[in-house]
């Protein structure tokens, strides 16, 4: 069996994993429900790639560095997983002495796509879906000493209808190398045997100065809640698990990009016999309100805490050259977020991907508003592109369109709705998320009006960009357009929704020595040098975007934060080592954008 060896192949960020004995991404993975007693299982595992039908690998191929996907250099493997293959993982572990007598939960932050878990030869659980965390109670299968953990994974990528975003087996244009198997942290925690807290749901009501809160436990029990700022308790309440509670805040401090204020939260589960605390978790929350209403000019406008706000930020796809969809380290994870703030952006559009929970925590902490896309089943559509280019009306409830959108089967449509609900539940508590986007450019789009209505009903506390870019069904909170190559312009028709250029720009500059593939490129407009790019970008903002603000533009997303594979249209190169324009220029142009919007709203 081959031992792990770092692969030096192609681009690398400054945070590339160097050593096999280091534990990658070992920070606590669930910031909104913290228990102090946990154990990270990231690190070296054995792996094997076998025929999909094989019940168990005969031999192990070597070592893989978890949580990096099989296809990445950071994993130490860097090979594709084909639809006819099955990927196997194996490692051993021992339970800590003080965990005996407790329930042991095995937590996977993300595994793509379908997996089966065995502990000491016993099936511990099965899961489908590539983007949402899941847990198995492995207590019944544990023994003294070393325990064996095996995970088998099947990931058909774009040969199937599951939600996969931009992953393909043959990368090209704006479609990227696949991510298969474990791609986020694996960890264990011990919880009380008798009863424990399982989940939290928190929704701020800034108008009423109330945090609506539901704490679910394994069994019914009394819940005690305290909100704090530093060591000072500012609000308290108690009730029964599973029932809605209200935490009344006295003159709450509101969260915004200028003041990303977070309250700490302590939650205790109390035993009915004797009043002893049986479980305790720590969390945080923010008080904020996002809404849509007419601004001073009469145009539909986004309001944050009842103040008009213009949203401007980059499209962020969250890919890394050595590690795919997994950030190579916590420092790397922070880089894009902190740079977005220092460049003057107040928003990020998280594009067709769900990040790890720590990413959203840092967005909350730093004060970035997030537009969260739902993953899709991929783009099947030269015909859809033709319809869009010709301006044809598309009814996305018809079977013909659903076939083109890769939604011809009932199973595919049901899977999308199931995972959409899971993603919304999973991310509900993060105050930074202000907009849900279920469909992008017709990719997997079906019944958008109905789906958008479901999203709004499930979470009325946020706005909805129902169909970003293409094939508007006249629902949601935004008239959402993608404009590349052509001049930015406002649609002629009147619309009661917020005018939103949800993608624009995409200006390309290839920086030699910082390219994924020097022989291939993809982009909309190519520039030869930094000076030409800066001049074009400045003209785009000052002569096209800012004039549209006066005519009612309410938000805009520039493509994009960094290059991704052969796309070279980022503010930063794919390795994050070069910013292609002067950072002071980008900051000043953002200030000009907000000043233009403020001028519109005070006149």
Protein architecture, described:
The protein has 603 residues and is α/β, with parallel strands linked by helices. It has four domains: 38-191, Jelly Rolls (Sandwich), CATH 2.60.120; 197-285, Immunoglobulin-like (Sandwich); 310-348 and 357-367 and 505-603, no CATH class; 374-476, no CATH class. It contains eight helices and 36 strands. The strands form ten sheets. It has an eight-stranded parallel beta sheet with strand order 30-28-27-26-25-36-33-32. The longest helix is centred in the last third of the chain and has 21 residues, at 530-550. The radius of gyration is 24 Å and the shape is globular. The mean pLDDT is 93.
Describe this structure in a few short sentences:
With 603 residues, this protein is of the alpha/beta class. The protein folds into 4 domains: 38-191, Galactose-binding domain-like (Jelly Rolls, Sandwich), CATH 2.60.120; 197-285, Sandwich (Immunoglobulin-like), CATH 2.60.40; 310-348 and 357-367 and 505-603, no CATH class; 374-476, no CATH class.
How do the helices and strands line up, and which of them pair or pack?
Blueprint: E1 38-40, E2 43-51, E3 62-66, E4 85-94, E5 103-108, E6 111-112, E7 114-119, E8 122-128, E9 134-137, E10 146-154, E11 167-168, E12 176-177, E13 181-182, E14 186-191, E15 197-205, E16 210-217, E17 222-229, E18 232-240, E19 245-248, E20 263-270, E21 277-285, E22 290-294, E23 300-304, E24 307-308, E25 311-316, H1 330-342, E26 347-350, H2 357-366, E27 369-373, H3 382-390, H4 399-404, H5 410-427, E28 433-437, E29 439-440, H6 448-458, E30 463-464, E31 467-468, E32 478-483, E33 498-505, E34 507-509, E35 525-527, H7 530-550, E36 553-559, H8 583-602
Parallel strand pairs: 11-12, 25-26, 25-36, 26-27, 27-28, 28-30, 29-31, 32-33, 33-36, 34-35
Antiparallel strand pairs: 1-14, 2-3, 2-4, 4-10, 5-9, 5-14, 6-13, 7-8, 7-10, 15-16, 16-19, 17-18, 17-20, 20-21, 22-23, 23-24
